[in-house]
Amino acid sequence: xxxMRQNTKKxxxxxxxxxxxxxxxDRMADALAPHGYEPTADIAMADLVLLNTCHIRxxxxxxxxxxxxxxxxxxxxxxxxxxxLMIGVAGCVAQAEGEEIARRAPVVDMVFGPQAYHKLPDxxxxxxxxxxxxxxxxxxxxxxxFPEEDxxxxxxxxxxxxxxxxxxxxxxTVQEGCDKFCSxxxxxxxxxxEVSRPVRQVLAEARGLVEGGVKExxxxxxxxxxxxxxxxxxxxxxxxxxxxxxxxxxxxxRLRYTTSHPRDMDDALIEAHRxxxxxxxxxxxxxxxxxxxxxxxxxxxxTGAEYLKVIERIKAARPDMALSGDFIVGxxxxxxxxxxxxxxxxADVGYASAYSFKYSTxxxxxxxxxxxxxxEEVKSERLWRxxxxxNAQTTAFHASCVGKTLPxxxxxxxxxxxxxxxxxxxxxxxxxxxxxxxxxxxxQVEIIGTSTNSLVGRLKVAVAA
Length: 465
Ligand code: SAH
Ligand code: SF4
Ligand code: F3S
Known about the structure:
Layout: E1 9-15, H1 19-32, E2 37-39, E3 48-53, H2 58-80, E4 86-90, H3 91-97, H4 99-104, E5 110-112, H5 120-131, E6 141-143, H6 151-154, H7 160-166, E7 169-173, E8 175-176, H8 187-190, E9 195-196, H9 199-211, E10 216-220, E11 228-230, E12 236-238, H10 239-247, E13 254-258, H11 267-275, E14 282-284, H12 292-297, H13 304-317, E15 322-329, H14 336-349, E16 353-358, H15 376-401, E17 405-413, E18 419-423, E19 429-433, E20 442-451, E21 454-459
Helix pairs in contact: 10-11, 14-15
The structure holds S-adenosyl-L-homocysteine, iron/sulfur cluster and FE3-S4 cluster.
């Protein structure tokens, strides 16, 4: 009798870049699960390593090639031991550089962009066939097309036990790609045109997540608030209306979305913030610069004043709204005065947190052809000053929470025994003494102090009258 044995293989995915890549990595794991691939946290055990890459800044991109150098060594070790290692490069660098990666790093078996993830099992079969070829004939499998079919129609959903294992919070991509073409940004080229998933598909995925124990969903899109999915009746539904529909899912307790563009904060979405408790009062709304001249050169198509006006409207609907933002310093032509305008807008808004970057020239973007590049030392100096200001604002925001009672979704055991940790509505990490029985629900927590990047809380026990 021949022995039937399902041969499990180990998959290691290394994820760079934004939350969309984090989501995609899970979806790739889901696509490979039916083919016998199980995730491992130990790269040395892997039969297949996928690098899910980011192209947004030069440094992010370059990381891929240094990682491929290390993987080449790992592959040699595995082969010396009689085993093997397959290597795939996915994500935005794969999309942008395709063939170039295979040429620069022949160790790679597969190179494929974000729109090809549903074809991963097929590509893997092709790459495995290549294995048996003479090295001089071996070619990497490359797929950087933007196919007609919708990858989301073909990607399998995670099994319930997998969703349970992934935890109480989950990402859900509802919109992909970008039509905005900010002059510094590669996303419209690496992710393609803006596409929204149909409402039915989004709701079904959200229900599946909630059945798997998820309490908090973060809707994702490069321009998530430009979402315009169709419903069963063929009507176009915006993100505001989608939020109302998701709020109807029993068991879903928190909803977030990222990243938003100031131009797409429409009335329906702002009203949703007024009406829906499930929508968390924390919004990532990048402005990039406070100088109208630079905003124009960046092709953001709004002014600093218009951005402030949007924030005013949001705060009128939801007074406790906290904001986070993204900033680029040293865009070509940025003068001292332009930079002062950026500091000014930061001071005016008062952010709960912010991400800031030195401008990085990206090949193929309009910004790459602009003269008047800002010197590296000037960029560094501006970045430090900006970060000093933002850090002070973050510290002040954390401090303003002390003495308040906040609902905290308790997600995990804390760093120390007898402690648990979770997140406030404003996405702050909160630590408190308490039993692990608290995990899985939202509890009222009195904030009693702050520590670096987090809050310290005390469980508020309801006292019967
Ligand atoms: N869709 C989002 C941003 C996605 S990219 C939006 O419109 O705001 C994430 C952040 O990376 C951007 O907000 C920007 O601050 C930064 N970024 C993008 N391209 C960059 C570049 N070429 N150099 C430096 N930072 C960049
Ligand atoms: Fe990039 Fe601008 Fe699109 Fe954001 S809106 S992804 S910054 S092009
Ligand atoms: Fe990076 Fe692509 Fe996200 S370039 S930021 S991984 S969309």
